[in-house]
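[stage:ingest] chain + small molecule (8Y4)
[stage:ingest] validated
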Amino acid sequence: MASDTKLYVIPEGLLHGEAARTALARGLALALTGNRLAFTCGWLVHRCGETGEISRRLLPAVELREKAEDTPPLATFLARLATPRPAFAGLSLDRPRIMGILNVTPDSFSDGGLHAEAQKAVEHGLRMAEAGAEVIDVGGESTRPGAAEVSNQEELDRVIPVVEALAKEGLTVSIDTRKAAVMRAAVKAGARIVNDVSALSFDPEARATVAELGVPVILMHMRGEPDTMMGLADYEDVLLDVHDELEEAVTRACEAGIARENVMVDPGIGFAKRTAHNLTLTRHLALLHGLGLPLLYAASRKRFIGEITDVERADARLAGSLAVVQAALRSGAHMVRVHDVPETAQMVRLLQALW
Ligand code: 8Y4
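[stage:predict] done
[stage:export] tokens:
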């Protein structure tokens, strides 16, 4: 095998709860992010670095384990899939966590001036926490293609009062921003997580800022910027490309001094991805556990759901959102970012009861 060939395993045949623990104890399955999940077979994938040629074979878990004994890269990949994830921002990841979306953009809580808007946003954040969101993701910059640029000062004016009020209430707040100055001010105001859709690549100061602040960070996959990303939705293999590009983002973050234990990854559903890409990533999400890090899935109300169901209005996409979030949780996603917190919390409770 050429030395520049990369190897991956896409877990299939997932088991949950008691079935996972029993199959692991009997050597019938391989562990996925601890012992609450296991997989009974998997696609062993090889990609040649020179030709880009990809080959895949579905193998039972037992054969994957045997093969790993004389294939070090396979042993490494299986070990990364298996290792339990440590707590992230103080949240243990042994059960699914809900991140509630709180937009503080001009169009979100319209009318009535900045103060009234902040007040409404804080109330919505508190309601989401009450309903089961363990992280509130506060964002003041729209990443919609064609959205107007927001100045540093305007973004700060919108998000900081909201972050401060929610943090004072004892909530875990993440700050959704690509700007180092906003990250710094938000953490000072009590935010405990940085959520950057550019994976710390938009602002040249971002990596050093997060390293200095020492806070957990969510690195999301995208290509280009919101205005250019759809022209870059061209993949050799979307699943493997997203894996590799996330791996590079993680490496760059760690080289800048960010602790690996402080990194969560996210495939960036809808960002530089067409409908088929979003479906492939959702279907084979478990491959991304091969990065050895906690995994966030965020598809709430996104356009591919509307495209498949022919539902134009974003706020009428709850059922489709629940379907893909459930799929992601069954693949072992550790956190989901959603608009509809009470409904998602109800679904998560039922899933847990079944497991
Ligand atoms: C309706 C409303 C339909 C909003 C789509 C949307 C992600 C993210 C966004 C994500 C992480 C969005 C800030 C896009 N998406 N952060 N942020 N992962 N980590 N669109 O996928 O929600 S904004």
